[in-house]
Each structure stands twice: as structure tokens, then as C-alpha cells.
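This is your field. Have a critical look at the following sequence-structure pair:

***
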Amino acid sequence: MPEGDPSSSAAEAAPHPRHVIIAGAGIGGLSAALFLAKAGWQVTVAEKVEALQEFGAGLQIAPNASRLLADVGILDDLRDFSVEPLALIVRKGDSGQELSRATLGEQAEARFGAPFIVVHRADLQNALRKRVEATPGITLRLGLQLTEALEREDAVTAVFQHGDTEERIRADLLVGADGVWSKVRQLSGLPGPSRYSGNTAWRALIPREQAPIFAREPKVNLWFGNGVHLVHYPICGGEEINLVAVIEDTWQEEGWSCDGDPDVLIQKFAPWCAKARELVAAAPEWKRWALVHRAPESRWSRARMTLLGDAAHPMMPFLAQGASAAIEDGAALATLLTPPCPRPEQLALALKRYDAARIPRTARIQEEARKQGRFYHFSGLFGRLRDTALKVLPGEAMLNRYAWIFEHDARKDTL
């Protein structure tokens, strides 16, 4: 080609596609991959397990996250699997008395601009994975165990163990979406493991035909008791009932799917009403995990590394915002990295703005979730005062109190 040919100059001037490695293929990592690919990044998602596992059970996806998932087509993909609850109902565990009711469904969707949905974690993860695998510019790699991250001014190199082989992948940015025991957190010099909270969560799935009739209705149900509470709602298009019990407990073990002894829960729920006991007894098996939390921090990011989801801000599940907050993180990060940052100083500024936008938001959710957990487990005088207040206040007060969560758009908050 002749010297000075304009097509040659254009080719030389074309920007190199920016590349991001996301460690972790959970809800946060896969959704972030879609947001970042849409923003123009080449994305490698690296997951340590050889096969993505269907662990966990139900998730509540509030409007602050569902509006973001709609942007990448995931709500359409979930249409046959998700359930849009019609109401949130709060009951006393010992008597079964209804204390409060908030309307969801079309009314809440009209108010917040996006739906409340409940879905099996595996259905959401599978929908995200299919979108990731079908999206040009995203590569999903399984069986890559992150061992080291080597930062330079112009790039970061992630070192992985792949079977007996060491593999190095160079990128412009490394994102840790690798959960509460995050390796990226450790490599970026942030404090180590999260702290156990003194609570354990127990989960079960009940086939629809084996569940009490009252539990099959498309509603989110919350029951209060002394040092324990119970949540249930239908998922999988109504074919399964998701059941979660949270109890105060000193048990500590890493992992999400440890076997739980049903006799422990039968004893815990012995003072409760017959309907609640019937529901708990209908569960064919229980899995449990120890709930962890972490105090808010001043930074998640450094020059070419950052965190999202549980790696950054594990939170108690009492506002059902863990997955939604991780989805928000990915959308906010992608917004700040649009278009892909061509120079180190621009990337550093974008990550600084990401921390500034997301840390206060997630810290507030973490704190409110802790408060909500104490509120759920009140007993004695405080429990009676709580119950009286719920009966007196209109049901919509529950939604009003947390409208700041549901109305939020993580994309606009970064601008």
C-alpha cells in the first residue's frame, strides 16, 4: 500500500478495543459483562468453577434493578420464569394475624417505572449466561482460578490457574465480582474476609402441589417472630414456592449450600401458628448459609482494579437488595466507562467517580438492612410496639419508606 494512503492512516489511528476482565460469573459479574459490552468494551468473564452451578433459591428483584435488566433484554427472557407479586403481606408468627399489606403488581410498577419480580436465582443466572454467550465481544471462561494480578501503568495482567496450566490474560481493567471471599479484594490490598453476623439463613423449595394453598398465591409473605423470621413467595412461573427462614445462630461455615437439619427449624417454629408450622414442615430439604456483612469502606478501586457486588459490599438480606445492588454496580460502572477510557488518568477518574457514586448508596442500604433485621426480630415490648405501629400505619408506608431504593436509576446517579 502506498505511503500516505488514507486507509493506512485510519487503520493506524483506530483505537485499540478496551478489554476488561470480570472475575466471577454470578449475577453481578454476568450482568456487568452485558452492561460493559453495550458500552463498547471487550469483556472476558473468568469463573473459577468448571461448570456454573444452580445454587441458591429465590431472589426479589426490585424496580431499581429490573429497569436495568430490561435495558439488556433480560426481563423479556425471564417472562416465563419470573412472578410479579401482587402484594407484600406482613404477619405475626405466633398468631398468623395480618399486620400490614402493601400493593405491588401494576400499581407499584406504575409508581416506580419498573416491576417488582421474584425469580429463581438459577433462572436469572441462566438468562444472563445465554445473553452473555450470544453477545459479540464477551468471552466466558470457566475453570480459571485467579491467583495474582500484576498492575502496570498501561495494563493489568490477571494470572490464572487452569488445571495444571498457568494462564495470563492482559486487560485494561480487572473487576472483582467474585463474592464475599473475593480474591480480587485481597489482591487489591483491601481488608480481608467479611464478618459473620450471628444469623443464618435457611432456604427450601417446595413444589407447588405439595405447598399449602395459601403459599401458592403470587404474593411476598413476611412473618415475624422472636429472634426468627420467615419469607416465602412463588417462583419458577409459580411452580415452586421459595421459603427462607433467618434465625439467630452462632454457626459459621463458608459456602451457600450446607445441609440443614430440619429438626432445628421445627423446634424454632414450634411456638408459631399452625399455618406457619405446616409450611415449614412441607419443605423436602433445607440448605443453610451463614450471613456475613462488612462495614462500608472509603474505596473499592485502585489504578486498574475495582469491585462490585458482595466482593465490595456484602449486605444482610433483610431488604432483599443484595442481587439488585450488584446489578446497579455493573450498570453504574459501565455508564462511567462509556466510551471506553483511552488513557490511564481517565480510567482512574472514572473509577474514582464509581466509588464516589456507589459507596454511599450501598452503605446506606447496608445500614438500613441491619436495622430492618433488628426490627424483624423484636420481642416483648418492642415487638408489641412494632406490631401496633404496623397495624395503624397504611400498608403503602412500607413502600414509601424505601422509595429512595426503588426509584433509583444507577445510570443517572453517576452523571
Notes: Confidence is low (pLDDT under 50) at residues 1-15. The longest strand covers residues 195-207. The chain has one domain: 11-413. The radius of gyration is 23 Å.
